[in-house]
Specification:
globular; mainly beta; 11 strands; 50% strand; seven-stranded mixed beta barrel; 163 residues
């Protein structure tokens, strides 16, 4: 009987230790053309004029989100140059830049939480950006869906960012 008890205890111990829990806190991830994409590094800046920039980078790739303010609201993309999104790949063999802007691309950035006490920002995004190289007919646009940035550290910055 002792053998069975030890055997069952051993099995229970093995099965209970197999699940690893990983917390994504903070995080920046999305589906890029329906393929999972998670940033290795991320940061956010609050500019002097209230503009917010949220950046996520993975190797040579970078996604930059820009909103008119840190207000918890939905910012529509493709309307103006104040709220917009861009993607760039700086790998020499794959150089490309895509962006939204006035009458260019579409989508939205939703700020769901601006925590001024902890200086973090959270939200969701989705957008379709147009290739800045109009001669690249194989890749005229890029699509990001189900994007999330969660508790990304926010820095106050007087530096003017350009996308």
């Amino acid at each position: 009987m002792k053998k069975y008890f030890y055997f069952l205890s051993f099995l229970l111990m093995l099965t209970s230790c197999t699940e690893d829990v990983k917390f994504n806190n903070p995080a920046f991830q999305t589906l890029k053309n329906n393929v999972f994409w998670r940033a290795q590094t991320y940061k956010a800046y609050l500019g002097a004029n209230g503009t917010v920039f949220v950046e996520g980078s993975l190797g040579y790739e970078k996604v930059i989100l820009q909103t008119a303010s840190s207000a918890e609201e939905t910012f529509i993309l493709g309307v103006n140059e104040t709220s917009k999104a861009s993607y760039e790949n700086t790998l020499p063999a794959e150089l490309s830049s895509f962006s939204t802007g006035t009458n260019t691309g579409n989508g939205q950035i939703v700020i769901t939480d601006y925590d001024a006490g902890n200086n973090t920002i959270s939200g969701t995004f989705k957008f379709t950006a147009v290739n800045e190289d109009g001669s690249d007919t194989e890749n005229p646009k890029i699509n990001f869906t189900e994007g999330v940035f969660y508790k990304v550290p926010l820095e106050i910055s007087d530096i003017v960012h350009h996308m």
